[in-house]
Write a structure and sequence with these properties.
The protein is α/β, with parallel strands linked by helices. The protein has a five-stranded parallel β-sheet with strand order 3-2-1-4-5, sandwiched between helices. The chain is globular, with a radius of gyration of 16 Å.
């Protein structure tokens, strides 16, 4: 029987919680020898909804999408720096579309064994719960999911890596 975890994917969304999740995933990859993938989804579905609701004009949508792509690059590069500092190689992935669909697709395409995500935001209503894209992804991926909490403990664990 092989290792239980060969590939870990961490979902990066530009939040502090996703960076904490990335630090935890780096530690896991270091301890287990698993391959590590950092994946960022540019949520074009949300932009299309804003355009349909006349909150955005088409020109604004294009500019906003460009800004989101730049954010994706910045966060993926930051996570890569964190991994390199600890001697862990990392593959960067990026896609556009609906977050939950893109995460499920990336997990499937990369044959991921464990999806690592940051702590979920607090749900204020049933409607919010239904529309939380990260939670939908967590519930529909075909692999185990680890939700990272306790930023201070994760930071200490990351810092203790040689």
């Amino acid at each position: 029987m092989g290792k239980p975890i060969n590939k870990i994917m961490v979902y990066i969304d530009g939040t502090e919680e996703s960076v904490t999740a990335a630090m935890y995933a780096i530690c896991l990859a270091s301890f287990t020898g698993a391959d590590l993938i950092a994946h960022y989804v540019i949520n074009t579905r949300a932009m299309e909804d804003l355009l349909r609701a006349s909150i955005f004009l088409k020109d604004e949508q294009v500019e906003y999408e460009h800004d989101m792509a730049a954010d994706a690059e910045r966060y993926l590069n930051y996570v890569k720096e964190l991994a390199v500092k600890k001697g862990v190689s990392i593959i960067q992935g990026q896609s556009k579309g609906s977050v939950h669909r893109e995460v499920v697709n990336a997990v499937k395409e990369n044959e991921v064994d464990l999806l690592v995500i940051g702590e979920l935001s607090h749900i204020r209503s049933r409607r919010d719960e239904f529309y939380d894209e990260t939670e939908r992804a967590m519930r529909t991926v075909g692999c185990s999911v680890l939700i990272v909490k306790d930023e201070d403990k994760v930071w200490q664990m990351y810092e203790s890596l040689v």
